[in-house]
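chain below, 659 aa
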Amino acid sequence: GGSLSWILCPVIKLAQDAANQVDDFITNALNIDVSDIFANNETSGTPQNAYYTAWNSFRIISLALLVIGGLVMVISQALGYEIFDAYTVRRVLPRLLVAVMGIALAWPMLKYFIKFFDVVGFDIRNLIYAPFVPIAQSGHISIGTSLFTWGAVIAGGIFVGFAGLTYILTALLAIFVGFLILVIRRVAIIMLVILSPIAIASYILPNTQRIWKLWRDNFLGLMVMFPIISAFIAAGHVFAAVSLSHTGGAGASTVQQMIGIAAYFVPYFLLPVTFRMASGAIGNIAGFVNDRHRGAFDRLKGVRGNATQRNMQRMRDGERFNNAALNNLTARATTSRFGFGAQGQAAYQQKLEAAAARHAKSEHGMVSQFNDNLLRSQTFANEAEARQGLAEEFGLNEAEINQAIADTKANGGWGQARAVHAAKQLARTGTGYKTLDQATRTAARVAGGNESMLDDLSGSIYYESKGAGRWDLTAGGAGDFSKLAAAEAQSLAGSGTGPSVADYHAATVKASKGADAVTILRGKPQEVETLTQSLGDHARALHLRSQDTTLSAAQRQAATDEFIDTMGQIEQLKQSKSYASQTNQEHVNTLLNDTEDLRTGVLTELLGNDTATVDPTTGRVRFGRSNTDPSLTQAQVDNRNRYEQASAPRQNPNDPNMP
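prediction:
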């Protein structure tokens, strides 16, 4: 009964019927009915007559060889030739008589020899079954155990994943090889019977005993296979029956049922062992299949071991399942203090860092290292979150999202270690993060509330961005980047509002102050676009702040000073835009158009309503009136000095001839 009985019951019934069919096939294949070879050998047109005719031909050839050999030995001794020494002749002639008798009686002797091993094979099975009356009577046992047991077996196979698939492949291979060997065994026995006269003659003739030993070892090995396989199968069935038996009116426990199922099927996996126990060529065939270095069984065993090890490692790394909560659970379950508290968070962070490093060196990590959209997708927990985040956070269109999802699935999917690797790699490429807010939000999201992980990601992204020449992503310093990322983390946790757009503009402008205008304008178009947008918006926000009467005079003056500094940066870009690419020149022109009112109105007023020009020799700003002009206020003089300093071009360290 149960909700899954509709599917499990047919599966169980099919498994039981299949096992019984396999038993019947093996028994029939192992049992060599002597009547199929030796009976009716005088009736023309029958297979038995063909076998006998072939055997008789080899018998005549073998007797002829023995007669010729005997005549050669007798004549050579009579004539005094030393072809064979006297000792050899005395030793071989008695055997020659035995060989002639053996060849003449080989047909009926082999018939009884084969019959003897068939009887032994059946009797061994019956002796094992005898104490267990139900099995002895039925010949089969029921493997239709509880649905819970089969559910556990199936669930275990799903849990093991690909490693479980190799067990199925091994079982199929075992059955296939077993059937193949049994068919080859029947054919080989018939061939050995037909060739028996040649083998017996080789026992006598000089330098041919290797042929006799080869025939003898293979024939005996093929005969012994029946008793060995019968014993294995019978023992497995008996053990299964004992495990599955009901005692005291109560059913067998789940563990006993699972042991019984395993015991029933294990003998089929042991068939290669019987092949190896069988000597000669048949053993070589089995040995090729199960060779330590080449064998398919051992290769599948190695695949199972490696796959299981990989799956367990992925569970510890939080990458085994396509479910963020389950991955988080398995990763924390194998972490000190479950990854909580200062020590636990540090341990969890170190664990994911190690896993991310392993992933980076893997084939998937190497393939993904320059695919920005794939990396962006892997910073999320699963496909659903990736689809939403790629659109909202990274601004990808539907076609780009679909391609990124497909690439991610082909690359092994999502996982916590992959997310850590992707977050850092996006900074290394120099093109993965378009804006500073993308970088800080990704760091906060991937950290998942782990402060140690957030600190590590923030530091890594900052330094990787700096190394890739993306100064616009550095926020002015490692500490500034970490503060923005921490604020984003608080927002994700619901304990804060997160950084504002103005905060990001201010951070971008601050980061740009460490570089000269020429270097900036020769950088990536994305950097210049980000900076020009930030400069314009930041300047306008500062102007509004300087006019906000709700602020103190000191706060308004600080906003005014920063406004003048920002306008000085804009002037630097204006002076240096001739050294920029066409795209970057367009970004600068857009900035100048957007801030035209601030430059010609607000700034002019702050500078004393004076016209500012640029000295072509020094590149510095010059005013029409001197700072000692009595019409200027002290505040205006201070603003003029500040603006001159802010707009003065800085020396480009990469081009000494640049002003």
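The longest strand covers residues 612-614. Confidence is low (pLDDT under 50) at residues 135-155, 157-163, 652-659.
thats it, cya
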